[in-house]
Amino acid sequence: MSNLPASTAPVSGIPTTHPLVKGEVGPGCAKVDPIVIADSVTRQFGGLKAVDVDHLEIPRGKITALIGPNGAGKTTMFNLLTGFDKPNTGTWEFDGKSLAGVPAFKVARSGMVRTFQLTKSLGRLSVLQNMLLGATGQKGEKLFASLIRPIWKKQEEENTARADDLLARFKLDAKREDYAASLSGGQRKLLEMARALMSKPQLIMLDEPMAGVNPALTQSLLGHIKNLKEDGTSVLFVEHDMHMVMHISDWVVVMAEGRVVAEGPPETVMKDPAVIDAYLGAHHDTDLGDLMEDGPNPVLEAERKAHEAHPEAETTGYGEKDKA
Ligand SMILES: Nc1ncnc2c1ncn2[C@@H]1O[C@H](COP(=O)(O)OP(=O)(O)OP(=O)(O)O)[C@@H](O)[C@H]1O
């Protein structure tokens, strides 16, 4: 059972309306144009309720960050929505179609694709081969079509052209024939994002896109994510790097102990007491008094202090960034 109350009362200085929201801003609020709507989604691991989301809507055509302390249930929620895990209860729809119980490969075909915290590129295949694996609905996969060379040949050429376009966009064209295993961690993240785009998704879900990416590639990754939105793709990403969250998100959803405890635009959601509680709750050694004084953003400070106290823990990108 969670002991974290979701914030419901309006907090002074935090607007209660927003152009993306129908009605009042708050955990589980309805969106004007949602691309994902989830209801009563729970996932239990033994005695632990990793996900316990009453209602969640993700806005279409926007960049939404899913944040929360370690163990909040963010990755589990991603796994459920994309068919990589099965919930105990719950339904959800993507672009008006129910996707609960639909396996991962069909979810991807329907236009919702994801990347993983640890990249899943296939090291012994070339960069180009990895890209071609990302194309969906390949006619050559069907027995009849696979026997008719002109059918699959044309599609193979189209897919290769799209892969080359994306590789150029992500500055991986020089690596086209190299084994994926030879890429740096950051380049693999780029490859995974580029591969996800092969299927022309409507929604791309990125699990910690910045983790392990060297600072030289950070700007380019951020630029790619912003470009996705400009091309009309909706983006949902999990991230610990609060700088990135503040910088590129249109909307932020905060999870703690499996639940959505707050949501709102990035400039105000971090001031929500439920968010500060959620982060402090995860790091009991942080002094709330220090954080509530005027000065730096309290959530960023809680993250920074937690990182200082436990530099070995994978808590945040904040501390590392500031040291760099
Ligand atoms: N397969 C599993 N078996 C048992 N427990 C699990 C499993 N997957 C996740 N959990 C637990 O569920 C909770 C939520 O985990 P999850 O990975 O979704 O959190 P998260 O918010 O993504 O955390 P992080 O930011 O550290 O990646 C954690 O307590 C985790 O230990």
Automatic annotation (TrEMBL):
Cited PANTHER family: CONSERVED COMPONENT OF ABC TRANSPORTER FOR NATURAL AMINO ACIDS, CONSERVED COMPONENT OF ABC TRANSPORTER FOR NATURAL AMINO ACIDS-RELATED
Name this polypeptide is given: Branched-chain amino acid transport system ATP-binding protein
Superkingdom of this protein's organism: Bacteria
Disordered: annotated span: 1-20, 287-324
Ranges annotated as biased composition (Polar residues): 1-10
Basic and acidic residues bias locations: 301-324
GO terms assigned for molecular function: ATP binding; ATP hydrolysis activity
Keywords assigned by UniProt, alphabetized: ATP-binding, Nucleotide-binding, Transport
Organism of this sequence: Herbiconiux flava
Keyword Transferase: no
Positions of the ABC transporter domain: 36-282
A Gene Ontology cellular-component term: plasma membrane
InterPro entries given in the database record: AAA+_ATPase (IPR003593), ABC_AA/LPS_Transport (IPR051120), ABC_transporter-like_ATP-bd (IPR003439), ABC_transporter-like_CS (IPR017871), BCA_ABC_TP_C (IPR032823), P-loop_NTPase (IPR027417)
